[in-house]
């Protein structure tokens, strides 16, 4: 049977861990009570044995225990009070406090300390629950108001469509915001509704009712009978986040136009139509806010139940140790506490379910529950079986390949050029990709083991998110297929098949993997594949897309995969230029276009990441993002200098490489340790680390700092320029690229650990979804 302490550790909300009852500390106090009792009994026994042992000692011990138990039933002088400041007393109770009598241990401090700690934990739980309950109730009230505005506007649009059919003149316009809102991520629309003039009687009455409802919510209506009276009222804006290129360009051009002209649009001016598409965006935002609210309420409900069980367990332990029955009396106080007696959370959950089912699921409860309570797939043992199977296959095939390559002499000086230039770019590309997926699988395993909520940080859906077993399965399958292709290619080459036919095997393998990546069928982790493609799209078109955590995290991965991108360039040139037929490798080595593309590919990941920093600075107005942008600019300069030095080995370029690389490395190391990992805090209680650590042993962090430092200076190899053969140089390049991938996987864990601790420090377990409608002064 699993201990409750382990169950609590596995089920508690990681971001709210500090707000839970400290079950482990209370267990220590119970243990101290037990030790004090044993000590007292031992002293009593020793006193009785001062004059030697007696055959009547067991009888004396039995009667002494009876007398102790009899004493336990009698009230004593000291009274320990349980303060229940946030509880809601029942009508027949005249007091808010429950008095517990400390009978046997009136002279012992341990029992008193235990109940004092218990009171502190109860107050802490009540206070946190009350704060979160108020926060969610406020969210629910605001969401209901937003939903009502949305429904009213949708009804007005329906009325407008029907009025057009009746050849009426009513229409709905929206006006651009007169000034940029620094707190908004998108662009605003000031809502004005021009009332139709010719409706049918029923349509006119319906529109008047809707207009009245809108005016109650603060929307200024132009053209209605009350428009003059509403001139000084608060209006309403719709904020649609600039998450797509179209919205971003519209927001920027609108802001620049208003800043240049310095003459914002006034009421009655022209504007773009507020169409159904904009309301669909608003509806999507409100639906997401309802889902997050429901999730937060579920977490708060779990928080309440787990704490209640913890109090029950710890009081039972105390009763067992002290031979008292104080748990029944104390539990009455716990049950009257606010976090147990309040039913506001349950009622709000029911209201959210009802509203969501009615307005977002068309009264289909089953469909609504797919959004509100998504099912989590359990780990399958078949995945583990296939991981082991493909791992064994990969090891066997790689051993066979090494033996065949040695026997056939493929890496001998006479034949190594053709073979290495054919095989190395494609298969090393797959090897680096598989290694990165393997490191990501290790990250997933460690994040899960240390209770780091990466699903919440990356905003992944728990039902479709990749698990560490799945990541291991993908990388082993990929490497098994790649090594199988290498063995097949080697066998065909050794048996004298035409190079023109045989050398198409790497290209066919590449096309197969690309086809699987974009396959539209719901198989082979389609949600993960499409999520990956969507993130890559957001990165490539930076800064037009809003930057999320998963976007810049993936962009950081690409900065460690520049060798892979260079191999993709070589592979594309090899097949598109027809080098696999002619074996003229200089076409892709000395061509002007190829050499220029090498700079573009080396700069691209740093450029994308710099543009993401610029976009985040634009959205959040945080100067730290500009400083982070400078880091990637310095990395771009250093990469360009090293690439030029590889082609022009002069003393001038050597000095430029040393200076630029040294500056970029110091910049990167500082940002890694201080900003990304949150370490090197001189005032921390953990020497040069930080106050809060997920890993129990501090040595891991010191090793991580040293390892990251060593792997960050791997660029020294480009300066040393070892004189080795073609195969050895390619092997050295692959090893250095693999070390950078390993460094990135090692960096990933501590980066997300720091992000998780930031969420824990702010008790942030529920995402804040921006709402579309907000009040603003209609006068400007």
Automatic annotation (TrEMBL):
Family annotation (PANTHER family): PHOSPHATE TRANSPORTER PHO1 (PTHR48477:SF1)
GO cellular component, one term: membrane
Compartments, as annotated in UniProt: Membrane
Name recorded for this polypeptide: EXS, C-terminal
Occurrences of domain EXS (ranges): 589-780
Membrane-spanning parts: 383-404, 424-447, 468-492, 504-525, 652-671, 699-720
Membrane topology label: Multi-pass membrane protein
Residue ranges of domain SPX in the record: 2-332
Biological processes annotated in GO: cellular response to phosphate starvation
Record family assignment: Belongs to the SYG1 (TC 2.A.94) family.
Pfam families found in the cross-reference section: EXS, SPX
Keywords, alphabetical: Membrane, Transmembrane, Transmembrane helix
């Amino acid at each position: 049977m699993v201990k409750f302490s382990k169950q609590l550790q596995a089920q508690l909300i990681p971001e709210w861990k500090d707000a839970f009852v400290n079950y482990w500390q209370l267990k220590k106090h119970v243990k101290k009570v037990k030790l004090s009792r044993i000590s007292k009994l031992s002293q009593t026994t020793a006193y009785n044995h001062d004059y030697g042992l007696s055959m009547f000692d067991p009888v004396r011990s039995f009667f002494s225990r009876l007398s102790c138990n009899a004493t336990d039933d009698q009230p004593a002088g000291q009274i320990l009070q349980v303060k229940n400041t946030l509880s809601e007393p029942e009508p027949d109770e005249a007091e808010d406090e429950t008095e517990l009598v400390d009978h046997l241990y009136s002279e012992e401090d341990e029992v008193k300390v235990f109940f004092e700690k218990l009171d502190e934990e109860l107050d802490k739980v009540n206070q946190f629950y009350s704060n979160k309950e108020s926060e969610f109730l406020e969210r629910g009230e605001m969401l209901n108001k937003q939903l009502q505005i949305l429904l009213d506007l949708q009804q007005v649009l329906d009325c407008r469509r029907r009025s057009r059919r009746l050849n009426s003149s009513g229409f709905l316009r929206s006006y651009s915001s007169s000034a940029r809102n620094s707190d908004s991520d998108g662009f605003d629309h000031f809502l004005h509704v021009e009332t139709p003039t010719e409706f049918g009687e029923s349509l006119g009455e319906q529109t008047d009712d809707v207009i009245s409802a809108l005016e109650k919510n603060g929307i200024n209506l132009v053209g209605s009978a009350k428009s003059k009276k509403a001139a000084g009222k608060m209006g309403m804006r719709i904020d649609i986040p600039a998450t797509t290129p179209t919205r971003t360009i519209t927001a920027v051009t609108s802001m620049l136009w208003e800043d240049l002209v310095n003459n914002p649009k006034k009421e009655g001016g022209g504007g773009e139509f507020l169409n159904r598409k904009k309301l669909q965006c608003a509806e999507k935002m409100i639906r997401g806010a309802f889902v997050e609210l429901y999730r937060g309420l579920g977490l708060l409900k779990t928080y309440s139940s787990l704490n209640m069980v913890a109090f029950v367990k710890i009081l039972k332990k105390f009763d067992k140790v002290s031979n008292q029955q104080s748990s029944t009396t104390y539990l009455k106080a716990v049950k009257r506490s606010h976090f147990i007696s309040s039913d506001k959370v349950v009622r709000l959950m029911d209201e959210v379910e009802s509203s969501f089912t009615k307005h977002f699921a068309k009264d289909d409860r089953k469909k609504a529950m797919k959004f509100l309570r998504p099912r989590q797939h359990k780990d399958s043992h078949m995945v583990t079986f296939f991981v082991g199977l493909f791992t064994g296959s990969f090891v066997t095939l790689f051993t066979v390949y090494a033996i065949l390559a040695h026997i056939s002499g493929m890496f001998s000086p006479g034949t190594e050029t053709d073979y290495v230039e054919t095989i190395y770019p494609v298969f090393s590309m797959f090897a680096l990709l598989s290694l990165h997926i393997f490191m990501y699988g290790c990250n997933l395993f460690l994040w899960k083991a240390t209770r780091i909520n990466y699903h919440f940080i990356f905003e992944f859906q728990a039902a479709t998110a990749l698990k560490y077993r799945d990541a291991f399965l993908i990388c082993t399958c990929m490497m098994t297929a790649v090594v199988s292709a290498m063995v097949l290619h080697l066998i065909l080459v050794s048996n004298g098949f035409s190079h023109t036919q045989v050398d198409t095997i790497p290209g066919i393998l590449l096309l197969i993997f690309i086809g699987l990546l974009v396959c539209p069928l719901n198989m082979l982790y389609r949600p993960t594949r499409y999520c990956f493609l969507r993130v890559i799209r957001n990165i490539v078109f930076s800064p037009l897309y809003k930057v999320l955590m998963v976007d810049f995290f993936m962009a950081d991965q690409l900065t460690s995969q520049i060798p892979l991108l260079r191999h993709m360039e070589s592979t594309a040139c090899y097949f598109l230029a027809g080098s696999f037929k002619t074996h003229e490798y200089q076409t892709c080595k000395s061509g002007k276009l190829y050499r220029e593309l090498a700079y573009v590919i080396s700069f691209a990941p740093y450029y994308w990441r710099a543009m993401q920093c610029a976009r985040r600075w634009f959205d959040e107005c945080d100067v730290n993002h500009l400083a982070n942008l400078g880091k990637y600019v310095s990395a771009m300069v250093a990469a360009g200098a090293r690439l030029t030095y590889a082609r022009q080995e002069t003393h001038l370029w050597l000095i430029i490489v040393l200076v630029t690389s040294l500056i970029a490395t110091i910049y990167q190391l500082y940002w890694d340790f201080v900003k990304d990992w949150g370490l090197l805090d001189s005032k921390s209680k953990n020497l040069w680390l930080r106050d809060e650590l997920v890993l129990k042993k501090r040595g891991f962090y010191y090793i991580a700092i040293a390892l990251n430092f060593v792997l960050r200076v791997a660029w020294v190899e480009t300066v040393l320029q070892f004189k080795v053969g073609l195969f050895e140089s390619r092997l050295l390049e692959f090893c250095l690229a693999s070390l950078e991938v390993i460094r990135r996987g090692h960096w990933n864990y501590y980066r997300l650990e720091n992000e998780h601790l930031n969420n824990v420090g702010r008790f942030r377990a529920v995402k804040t979804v921006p709402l579309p409608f907000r009040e603003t002064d209609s006068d400007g």
